[in-house]
């Protein structure tokens, strides 16, 4: 890959003034050869394998930051879904495996490790059930372990038994981490149509079809896109907006491609994918909401927000796809409330509601993300929110997800404080009417028919 002096100067400007960064370099590691009936042996195998493969990850990332001047914010690890690995064990409690994953992450020096996960979109195995039951304590007793559960796919429909279970698991996780505003729920995602190569947390895991070890890159840059659109002014038409976002996404992705290939070479593992996602941070000017407002919306959440987000998401994909042949993960625009200063302002101004966020998830790259709700919300209501998001994903053949925090002891208008990239958020109101009978019907919502699209 050749890079001109002009591109280098432009990248320096993006880093210094517009919050350009590589959001994450994530090493995926297969644990399929770590199965054993004895859980202590499984833990020993996991620790040995993860620390051997990833021992130089943080150093290599740090060296690349210094050499190329581009910040790499997070260094992470993803592993094979633990429900698959631990099913060979003669125990029902998998928390011990979460603890050894946490120790791996701490000893290596990475920010998070993902893969305390299960794929239950078509039903449960014994290992799936044990893993789901272990999630609350696993997340409450570890700092860096992240968990995800896939409850639906377009091909199989929605496992409503899993959806109901996840409502209770989220409530219990919040209860066990109540002293930190339910932060355990910030490390737990419920998916529909989950990708198996996503480098972003909390949903990253190393899928069954992935190779032995791989490096995936998650790029960011809402501040860069925001600055580019501001320069256009109010007279630019939608074609000009789209072209500007595409060109900007192309440049951001080139930086990610360069870092990914260099990291792959130095670590001696295969280069995987670039996730072309615009991931906001709580920093001023690094907001998806601010991008949408720059397009002409008085406030994010106003009528027209969904159309603006659709344009943004599509243009990011088109521009990024021209810069790399290996697009993967979630790729698009994230809309987490607590991690986006503009979203927080929009919620405070009552311009952005949960219902509008749900509509936006029809066109964004993920779903309802980092949203705080009242602590007394019934588990069945949380399950119904998950079911709604899963339905959007299943019908539209896209990934959707729910990362929601029922903040213990908090009511509408209160605040939760997580700090760092997880940010802070106001507690949002919910529809007060019950969905209890609906979500308790049990069974599987059948997959949709796509030959009669309308």
UniProtKB/TrEMBL annotation:
Q: Out of the domains of life, which is the source?
A: Bacteria
Query: Could you tell me which InterPro entries the record lists for this protein?
Result: UPF0210
Family statement drawn from the similarity comment of this UniProt entry: Belongs to the UPF0210 family.
According to the record's subunit comment, the protein's assembly and interactions are: Homodimer.
Q: What NCBIfam families does this protein map onto?
A: PRK05313.1
For this protein, the record's HAMAP family field holds: UPF0210
Q: What is the lineage of its organism?
A: Bacteria, Bacillati, Bacillota, Clostridia, Koleobacterales
Protein name in UniProt: UPF0210 protein H0A61_01087
The record's PANTHER family line, in alphabetical order, gives: UPF0210 PROTEIN MJ1665 (PTHR37560:SF1), UPF0210 PROTEIN SPR0218 (PTHR37560)
